[in-house]
Amino acid sequence: MPATTIVWFRHDLRIDDNPALIAAAARGAVVPVFIWAPDEEKPWPPGAASRWWLHHSLEKLAAALEKLGAPLVIRRGPTQVALESLVKETQATHVAWNRRYEPVVIARDTAIKKKLAAGGLDVESFNGSLLFEPMHVATKEGKPYQVFTPFWRALLGRDEPAAPLAGPKKLTAAAAAAKSLAVADLGLLPTIDWAGTMRKTWTPGEAGGAKRLAVFLADRIGGYGTERDRPDHEGTSSLSPHLHFGEISPRRVWHAVREAAGGKPAAKIVGSPEVYLRELGWREFANHLLYHFPHTTDAPLRADYARFPWANDPVGLRAWQRGRTGFPIVDAGMRQLWATGWMHNRVRMIVASFLVKDLRISWLEGARWFWDTLVDADLAANTLGWQWAAGCGADAAPYFRIFNPTSQAAKFDPDEAYVRTWVDTSAADYPEPIVDHAEARLRALEALKVVSKAR
Q: Span 4-128: which CATH code?
């Protein structure tokens, strides 16, 4: 009996360097499927900005697969039911997917794999999202890393990540066609169109990711080491949403940066290309932590911070969310986020510090807001970033290191070009600062004593 493989797409919405798809295409007929089952990812189902991106990325993927000869099948969950139904409809012999590393997804995927295999199917999963899988990186004692620098050294001490694989040029469809929903049937787009600026800013899909990478390598990588900290300049790659949705693989990016740096081994690359490769290393580190410490999505890695006396301040939280704190760099960042679904990384650190230290509002409130509003909302990166800001995670900034938003703005947006793009501080309704930073700093340090005394 000829092999027919169901390829279950998730955070790998691409043809290029897609191990599950490439293996299936080499075996025989392919049935690509995307299953919308957000309830299976609670308490962190995809947020509003992620759903907007997903809609457009799925449309691009569907068009690409149709052109290759195997139309994308779109179904609603439950995932187990959807896959079993599709197996019967197509007489599939194999099911394949690329692995994800969120705690609830790992549990779900494990159960699905076991049940499908018990039903006589060959089930395979692949690494299509990371340079190295988190279960394969450990200290000499066999323990997970909790500090980035030794983790990074360990990565550089390994062989280079595998070279990216070229995607198939043609796919063979299954003999029995399967019914499919349209992307629009999933209801991913907002009922009120708030995404106008996002449409102008982003091009979701594999081609959009490839173009972003090409522009970065041609125009920006040489100055990345310094320009990445300047929100008033176009100095970053802006690849994070494309990487999150798997529209481009980290292996493709890694080796493209190496090639731009002369093809040297990563351990011998210096300057701006090394700084960018290190950022890919932080992405790996975030997934390493999430895999080994799954409770950190909702609780601090450093257990003593569970005692921290966070403030209950809905008014302050709302002012922060709306970009109306009276601190221009904070407000600019929050308004950029609301308009474009993205925020410059330096500004992310500033606004996060302001929330957890000036306002003393829990990092979880910030994590939830970013989760809903970022197009690159990634559970591993979101968890790492917010626990870093709050001082309660791995390799975190100490809580007593409190960003001064005014001095940060003077250093990284000296001409106020970034602020002026998003905020009119001369407007009659622009608010006065909602806190005195010097006093807020003292209150934050006083609150820290609760944690210190318990140690």
A: 3.40.50.620
